[in-house]
Amino acid sequence: MNLGQWIGLIAIVLSLYILWQIREVMLLMFAAVVLATTLNRLAKRFQRSGMKRGFAVLLSVAIFFALIGGFFWLIVPPFAQQFQELTYRVPQGFGRFNSWLDALRTRIPGELVPYIPDLNSLIQQAQPFANRLLGNSFAFVSGSLEVVVKVLLVLVLTGMLLADPVAYRKVFVRLFPSFYRRRVEGILNKCEISLGGWVTGAVIAMGVVGLMSVIGLSVLGIKAALALAVLAGFLNLIPNLGPTLSVVPAMAIALLDEPWKAIAVLILYSIIQQVESNFITPVVMAHQVSLLPAVTLISQLFFVTFFGFLGLFLALPLTVVAKIWVQEVLIKDVLDQWGNHHLQETEFVISSKFPQVDDPWTTETPASDRDQPVDNTLPTND
Fold this sequence. Notes:
This protein is mainly α. It is 78% helix and 0% strand.
């Protein structure tokens, strides 16, 4: 290797190291790109109806913030009410448990009484755990503030990208060699179409899961059924793990009412998860984005390992985009062309046709030349 090759290798290694250090920032930028692409497609739909670009973008952003505001308006008040109910029901539960233990001591033989746990001793044993949980709550609050800052950063980047998407796209394309820029434009078009398909499939799956959840919870008489259904639909964006997370608050609220309802909620969510994973998602995602289930699970494990919870949340769109780039660049442009450049075939077309004067592809012979007699005798050697 000469000096230039060594410099190139060192530059590649340093670039990969820098990208690894700023991987979280890159992930936030990707989230902004996905959100901007979605809103841009919605704005284009409004533009087709005759609306100007500026009004179309403002209407798309207004719809997005209306959905976010409606989500929190449906979720926060019922959960806050249930939490307040939990604060006075927990002491009541401890009191009932203590009364049950006292009644049990009077009914069992005296030699078995020391083996019955005392509620006060249990509380003292749980004191270190409570202190640890309180310390974790402060860490949770600080982490929540960090999440808010990241969300604001994503929203600001989304607004910048949405204001002039063509300019940022041109900047990205110019990072590639000139002979490959048209090819990159085609790949970006495919990425945009695939991301739009993923968003459409995700919205359909969220709607179906939310509808089944609100019907089932309403039949069981669970409080805050609509809020729990909206939360279940939103967490469905996280495949495999999202439905498991959504069942926890539903069971907790059901447990405040009747213990059997918690078991019924668990059965209901298990049925919904089976229907969603075996029927809804395969049909919808196969139609919108062709991803194998094993690839989806492996991508989730990969991105959650290297990027944390945000990587798990964006695992599917990251996989969709990565699949297109690998398929178009690595497979089609590199592997499929490997060693085939010397096998290029040239096709020769031989046409046997007597040229006529009126043929458009021949030059008409002047009349003076046609009138001359043609000497068909062969030349002789002197």
